[in-house]
Amino acid sequence: MTTNSAFKAAGARHCICLVTVCVPTNYTGRAISDCLINLDDHIATLDGFMGLARQPGWTVTPVTD
């Protein structure tokens, strides 16, 4: 079954662009580690963290020497 026919069979919309993912030939897709996330944990990029810090009024500035 091709990718396009698999999308049609699943009732999904077509993808406009193709994505190439390079993985080792022995890659199985199985996770090799995990981490439990608590309800009070935050996962964010640096920009997301800066946004969280600014919400209550913090000013984030770089350190200058």
> Mean of residue pLDDT?
75
Q: Residue ranges: pLDDT <50 for 5 or more in a row?
A: none
SSE class = mainly alpha
Per DSSP, the total helix count is 2
- Rounded to an integer in angstroms, the radius of gyration calculated over CA atoms is 21 Å
> How would the global form be characterised?
elongated
Encode the helix/strand succession as letters: HH
What would your notes on this structure say?
- The model has no long low-confidence stretch (mean pLDDT 75).
- This protein has 2 helices and no strands.
- The chain has 65 residues and is an all-alpha fold.
- It is elongated and about 50 Å long.
- It has helices at residues 3-9, 46-54.
Fold blueprint:
Layout: H1 3-9, H2 46-54
Overview in brief:
The protein is mainly alpha-helical and 65 residues long.
Core attributes:
2 helices, single chain, mainly alpha, elongated, 65 residues, 0% strand, 25% helix
